[in-house]
Amino acid sequence: MRHIAVIGSGPAGYYTAEAAQKAFGDQVRVDIIDKLPVPFGLIRTGVAPDHQSIKAVSRRYEATALTENVRFVGNVAVGRDVSIHELIDLYDAVVLATGAPADRPLGIPGDDLPGVIGSAAFVGWYNGHPDHAGLAPALDGGGAVVVGNGNVALDVARILAKAEAEFAGSDIVGHALDRLKAGHAGDITILGRRGPHQIAMTPKELGELGELQRAAPVVDPADLPPVEADAALEPGVRKSVTHLRDFAGRPASDKPIRIVFDFFARPVRIEGDGRVERVIVERTELDAAGNARGTGETYAVPAHLVVSCIGYRTPPIEGVPYDEKLGRFANEDGRIVPGLYAVGWARRGPTGTIGTNRPDGFAIVDKIAEDTHGDSGKPGRAGLDALLAERGAEVVTFRDWQRIDAAEVARARIGSPREKFVAVEDMLGARG
Fold first, then answer.
1. What b-and-e string marks burial along 277-308, b requiring 16 or more CB atoms within 10 Å of the CB?
2. How far, in Å, are 10, 35, 64, 232 from residue 396 at the CA level?
3. Same domain, 55 and 10
4. Could you tell me the strand order of the sheet in which 340-342 lies?
5. Backbone phi, then psi, for 390, in 5-degree steps?
6. Do 151 and 295 belong to one domain?
7. 14 Cβ contact partners less than 8 Å away, ≥ 6 residues apart
8. Partner of 388 for a Cys bridge, out of 199, 271, 342, 393, CB 3.0 to 4.6 A?
9. Is the pTM here over 0.90, yes or no?
């Protein structure tokens, strides 16, 4: 029997568990440990609430979770309830699947002013993550700046711009919807330090901005390269640039919100008297290698809210080697130290899609198969249960989660699939 502990119940964690089942059959026991009482990681708290079709992948993880040799161990935090070294002593393999839930800082003067928010925190706020439920973003019409040219920037801009009716069918949490209803952030400027050909925005997400009820996307035609240059692009990027060309060709709109794509622009400082009031932006140009360099020309963009969507980092764990430069655990193809592995964003950094984590999980299990040989005699889950009981940890099982899930569905507003609990104590109280 092999005993495997997976830290983190998001896509990377469940794909690793699925891979272990396929590799070892009934000769494996997998414990998926998460600090929250609810599973599925970024599927629950990272995917945009109006993209329910993407969240449906959790049904696949549920099928894995309900098997005999995989279990969910919720409300158990590494460092608080159990240490990494204790887990290595208990299990044949410990796999870190913690993702990258921390924001990369902007690293410019003024980025600590009230009103500057990282996308992990902002997305966590409207998705009901307990760590971010108390956020109070400024939505008083003073303008918003979104820094970044990827899909997260599009998600943030879209959520800020949507009218209440456009959230029908989404699971945006009530506190966020109420705040968005009460006012809007004014014009939304999306800053990208390079040009349209360098965006990391996918066609579907970009196209959604052109269909909003109260907001219109704005692209300066002068920022677009000659149309014949699009032929050299990858097909997906070419489709995205086609959307930008469509936006650039539209007549001026009378909708109350503009979503302005400001290309060749990078923030150099944020100013304000006690809170964000403006972002100072430097105009950029591309060098021969396609990198952005400053031109020295600066201008101000008014804003009472700045959301930074420039990437994420994996938080360090005491006792685990860490790569500060890359913001992830130090590893060689997933191996950290004997008995300890990393998978998903914790291994490679915040790149790829949800589906990218599946082959990653299978690759890590192949390494576990190479490194372990049958029954080591380690106690696995029995040892963990004894340790957690001794420490008085309040463990949440997958059956408990199903009761929490049912309670969230029962309290949903009309047209929404659920109303999430945003406090851990409320999740625990919903177990019945």
1. bbbbbbbbeeeeeeebeeeeeeeebebbbbbb
2. 16, 10, 17, 52
3. yes
4. 70-73, 28-33, 2-7, 93-96, 340-342, 335-337
5. -60, -35
6. yes
7. 32, 39, 40, 60, 61, 64, 65, 361
8. 393
9. yes
Provide the residue range defining the domain that includes 282: 102-308
CATH of the domain at 365: 3.40.50.720
Per-residue pLDDT in tens (0 to 9) along the chain, 432 residues: 999 999 999 999 999 999 999 999 999 999 999 999 999 999 999 999 999 999 989 989 999 999 999 999 999 999 999 999 999 999 999 999 999 999 999 999 999 999 999 999 999 999 999 999 999 898 988 899 999 999 999 999 999 999 999 999 999 999 999 999 987 789 999 999 999 999 999 999 999 999 999 999 999 999 999 999 999 999 999 999 999 999 999 999 999 999 999 999 999 999 999 999 999 999 999 999 989 999 999 999 999 999 999 999 999 999 999 999 999 999 999 999 999 999 999 999 998 888 899 999 999 999 999 999 878 889 999 999 999 999 999 999 999 999 999 999 999 999 999 999 999 999 999 998
* Residue 217 β-bridge partners: 259
What span, in angstroms and rounded, lies between the C-alpha atoms of 350 and 387?
Answer: 33
Q: Same structural domain for residues 109 and 180?
A: yes
What is the rounded (10 degree) CA torsion for 171, 176, 179, 182?
Answer: -10
- Backbone φ and ψ for 396, nearest 5 degrees, come out as -105, 125
